[in-house]
Amino acid sequence: MGLDTKTTTDQISLNAASHDHILLDDQRVEQLRQKKTSFSSTEEFVCLLGIFFMVRLPWLFMIPMVEAPDEFAHYWVIKFLREHWRLPHAQEVFAGGPSAVYGSMPQLGYIPHVFSSLFMPYEDIALSGRFGSLLMGSLMLFAAFRIGCLLFKENKLMALALPLAIVFHPQLIFLHSYANNDSTSSALASILILLAFESVARGIAFKRTVLMGAIVGWVAITKYSGLAIIPVMGVAVLASIFIHGTAISTAASSILCAGLVAAAVSLWWFVQNGVEYPGDPMGTKTMYKSWASTFHRDLNYYLPVSHIIKSLKWWRMMFFSFWGMFGYMNKYLWRPVYLVYTAMLIAAVLGWLNGMRKFAFQKARTFKFTRTNSKDIVMWSCLVLTVLINLASMIWASVYNLGGPQGRYLFTSEIPVMALLIGGMNLLGEKKAGRIAVCIFLAFNLAVAVGSWIYLFRLYGGWHINPLQ
């Protein structure tokens, strides 16, 4: 009897040890799986980054400055900051003439360009400054890569399609190939969308929220078109508080600190600018007066909002210049190309309508809100809201002629636009049909980008290592 008891005890111990061993093995497998997934994600992003640079560098070394929209004006600010290591005074801006037209506007969007100029001789600043745009483009790519993983968690192809759309977008390639502050504002807006989505997915975190505040402050003194992202940040943060049941005190302290950081980063500039340009702390009036006098335009320009909304010319210009309009906004793509992009936009809209139809007839009755699907609804809604607010701000700027219907002003919504297009196409028909549509979209972008480079390379007569020549 004693022997049986001892045998039973030994067997129990052996089974427990085996169970612990199996658990340890399972933990090791899970750790290895997570490590492999993380490494795979790192590998994928590095590959995307390599393609990103391969696509853009030939453009950067090809475009002469006279063929890049307002690069002379951007160049004046970058050169001044690099030479004097301070912001320009009003007298220096007025003395700079037409080239200094952006001197009264926010100059902190050129920090990446000044930084990149440090790695080459000062004499080559016209070229080295362009790498600042390339640097910010890579930041946008990172945001697209992470957002793709959040939006398309169970679809690897769609998750990768979003950053690939960023890589091959013809007009965005052009933007990242010359010195400008649009590249900075669009990249910062993309990072803000990523941080907002991280908050929706994981809840409010103090450090992340404060970082969002700091970036919002930087956007405010980079380019005003980027400010369209701020209302969306508010919606995402409030939704995150509701979804995760965050304590009001915790959320309030995080938001308050973020607001204080945003104010600390940006308000000093507006105070300083108000001193330099009395009555014009934003610098827009000074900029417009200089621009209007240079190009002999009406100083009291005004168009009703209804006139712009109904203007087919305005929408056509915005659409064309979003996908591809090079040179000084005077080098068009082959017109059928725009028709194909229009067809793809219609296909994406039809895909979303098809998805809503399926939901209404098949899932609406049994649908229940959960924390998981609430997150998805908030993120996709924020993408739509970003595009709508961005378009509204462009229309408002056109009312006072502070900015025309130029596609690069919509690049604040670059990731939302591409995500909505990919998401809509993916909902066309069955899964296979949707994937084929998305692959055609990406391949078409690549073909247009390559074809555009060949056309411009021949037109510009080869390489322009010195953009000033």
SSE layout:
Layout: H1 2-60, H2 71-84, H3 90-95, H4 111-117, H5 125-128, H6 130-151, H7 156-168, H8 170-175, H9 182-202, H10 206-220, H11 230-244, H12 248-276, H13 284-295, H14 305-309, H15 312-323, E1 325-326, E2 331-332, H16 335-363, H17 371-399, H18 414-426, H19 431-460
Helix pairs in contact: 1-6, 1-7, 2-4, 4-6, 6-7, 6-9, 7-18, 7-19, 9-10, 9-11, 10-12, 11-17, 16-18, 17-18, 18-19
Walkthrough of the structure:
This protein is mostly helical and 469 residues long. It has one domain (58-460). Helix content is 73%, strand content 1%. It has helices spanning 2-60, 71-84, 90-95, 111-117, 125-128, 130-151, 156-168, 170-175, 182-202, 206-220, 230-244, 248-276, 284-295, 305-309, 312-323, 335-363, 371-399, 414-426, 431-460, and strands spanning 325-326, 331-332. Helix 4 (111-117) packs across helix 6 (130-151), helix 6 (130-151) runs antiparallel to helix 7 (156-168) and helix 10 (206-220) packs parallel to helix 12 (248-276). It starts with a helix and ends in a 9-residue tail after the last helix.
Low-confidence stretches: 5-10, 12-27, 29-39
Instruction: Give average pLDDT, whole number.
Output: 88
Shape: globular
**Strands side by side in the biggest sheet:** 1-2
- Overall tally of domains: 1
Major β-sheet profile = 2 strands, antiparallel
Total DSSP E strands = 2
Strand proportion = under 5%
Fraction of residues in helix: over 70%
Count of discrete alpha- or pi-helical segments spanning 4 or more residues: 19
Structural class: mainly alpha
